């Protein structure tokens, strides 16, 4: 069982930056693939980024490539999402997710554990 708690969301102007953190409980964090997803009002939850348990495999949605960076610190049981050059269309609730697998998935249905989400609002 893994519990996930996101933090770091907030209100930022377009072009600004935010760093999201997701703290995980449990001793097996280093064996979990981790993902970030987001959901805007009236839209489906969409993939943002994912990272394998070693950090060796990383995937990004095309919409965030070159602007967002996912990373993890297994000694701190934490995964991060550095978001730069933010746009109003990045406004959403951001969720982190965990899956106890060596594989990395980009679909929400593959993840077993979810955080409660953190709001990111980008003003124009």
Provide an overview of this structure.
With 124 residues, this protein is mostly beta strands. It has no helices and 11 strands. It has strands at 4-7, 10-13, 18-24, 33-39, 46-51, 58-60, 68-73, 78-83, 92-99, 113-114, 118-123. Strands 2, 4, 5, 6, 9, 10 and 11 form a 7-stranded mixed sheet that branches. Strands 1-3-8-7 form a 4-stranded antiparallel sheet, with no helix packed on it. The N and C termini lie far apart (40 Å). 33% of the residues are buried.
List the helices and strands and how they pair.
Layout: E1 4-7, E2 10-13, E3 18-24, E4 33-39, E5 46-51, E6 58-60, E7 68-73, E8 78-83, E9 92-99, E10 113-114, E11 118-123
Parallel strand pairs: 2-11
Antiparallel strand pairs: 1-3, 3-8, 4-5, 4-9, 5-6, 7-8, 9-10, 9-11
Brief digest:
The protein has 124 residues and is an all-beta fold.
Q: Write down how many β-strands occur, each being a DSSP E stretch of 2 or more residues.
A: 11
Mean pLDDT: 95
Point out poorly predicted stretches.
none
Q: What is the first-to-last residue Cα distance?
A: 40 Å
Q: What sort of overall outline do the alpha carbons produce when their principal axes are compared?
A: globular
Helix and strand element order = EEEEEEEEEEE
- Residue share in helix: under 10%
Report the total helices.
0
> Main beta sheet, described?
7 strands, mixed
Radius of gyration: 13 Å
Derived from helix and strand composition plus strand pairing, the structural class reads mainly beta
Strand content: over 45%
């Amino acid at each position: 069982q893994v519990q996930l708690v996101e933090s770091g969301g907030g209100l930022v102007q377009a072009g600004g930056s935010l760093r999201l953190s997701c703290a995980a409980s449990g001793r097996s964090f280093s064996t979990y693939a981790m993902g970030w997803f987001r959901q805007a009002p009236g839209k489906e939850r969409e993939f943002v980024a994912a990272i394998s348990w070693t950090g060796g495999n990383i995937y990004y949605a095309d919409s965030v490539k070159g602007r967002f960076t996912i990373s993890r610190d297994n000694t701190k049981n934490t995964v991060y999402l550095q978001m730069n050059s933010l746009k109003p269309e990045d406004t959403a609730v951001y969720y982190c997710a965990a899956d106890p697998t060596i594989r990395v998935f980009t679909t929400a249905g593959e993840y077993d554990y979810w955080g409660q989400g953190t709001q990111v609002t980008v003003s124009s």
